[in-house]
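Practice record 12: protein with adenosine monophosphate.
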Amino acid sequence: MIFTDLPLHNTIQKAIAEKGYTHPTPIQEQAILPILKRKDLLGCAQTGTGKTAAFAIPTLQILLEERNKGNNGSDWSAWKKQGIKCLIITPTRELAIQIDENIKEYSQGTGLKHTVIFGGVKQHSQVIALNRGVDILTATPGRLLDLMNQKIISLKNLKIFTLDEADRMLDMGFIHDVKKIIKALPEKRQSLFFSATMPNSITTLAKSLLTDPIRVTVAPISSTAETVAQKLFMVDTNNKQKLLRDILFDRKVKSVLVFTRTKHKANKIADFVNEIGVGAAAIHGNKSQNFRQNALKDFKSGKIKVLVATDLASRGIDIDQLSHVINFEIPNEPETYVHRIGRTGRAQNTGIALSFCDATEVAYINDIQKLIGKKIKIDQEHDFHTTHEISNSARKRQNFKNSQSKGGRGNRSGDKKGTRSSDRNNKSSRNGRSSKNSHSERNTKSGRGGRKR
Ligand code: AMP
């Protein structure tokens, strides 16, 4: 199938062509036609699959059809009075901005109005944009609810509701806000629901929202893109910075997203990278929205080579031409690894993912390899190679299990059903690799930090 086969308005076809898209990605191939037929959709898709266009393109087509059938020529005043017709909610500000940017590109020349709202900044300019009239609104849940409560936003004429990254909403403690928003939607509407994973709680939420949905699943979260080459570096903790320095000095390494588990570590690594003369910035939940946007802009434009991020700040970020992802610290949830490395090798590009593993992280690598169903190649061609091998993992895992059960808390292997929902509920206990983690991003996620507006 090619895009020009799809029954899309010429203006939308032109915008797609201008983006350089010729062939729909698998999720687009499966989702666009059913959405155009006004079906509800349950999409299980990881980031980087083209899911934004999968829902945005047919949404634009439907809105154009609705607008044009009820109007003479370009007198759209009655249409304008209806207010917001399409709402997209997504968990992070960065994702919201990115979706709105995509909508801007895909809707070029259609006359459809769109805007984005998110917390962490004053509401004034967002309210002005809303008052100008909006057809498609992209929002994070907190700010949306605030503005709904202030009666600045009404959803009474909503036609299409899209819930993006549902599992992440749950992780970040937004699920109650999401449920409140859903309650305020008109009964008669089309709903599109996307989640990278489908734990039980998400399936229940989807059931409450969707009517006879078509189900679309592409590349389950356990799979890493073929376009990403993965390498593992066995290295002692105190040599990780030196290894990073050597890698950054390599001229082939053009743009690098470095992941840490904590905000504190992200700041420390960004400072180190700046000290060695390579431009860097850190983004995480403690940085202001403006700082985060500027850092991202500088990174995308190539002004800085390195962006250091925690998982909270960087999920879903789409950076063209990102050459490397570095896991400075190995995530203790294997799915997070898949999300992280999915930042590179997106669309038709290729990418490289490097993971620095110290002795305490061997068990996590083992879990990751189990999830992705393959061994990550160990790179020994560097000055800091040590021999803590994967075979240690069973012992580490046992120690970890013991320490968890001694503390009377849940543990992953104790979760006999292995459902991801209970797995996630145990996150804070599993997170505790050491008491040092008290300032970790994850701890803030379910508490203050994740709900900051
Ligand atoms: P997403 O999963 O929506 O974040 O999209 C990931 C990347 O794929 C973005 O850079 C999109 O611009 C790009 N993309 C989406 N659809 C297509 C397509 N059909 N052909 C080429 N690139 C695409």
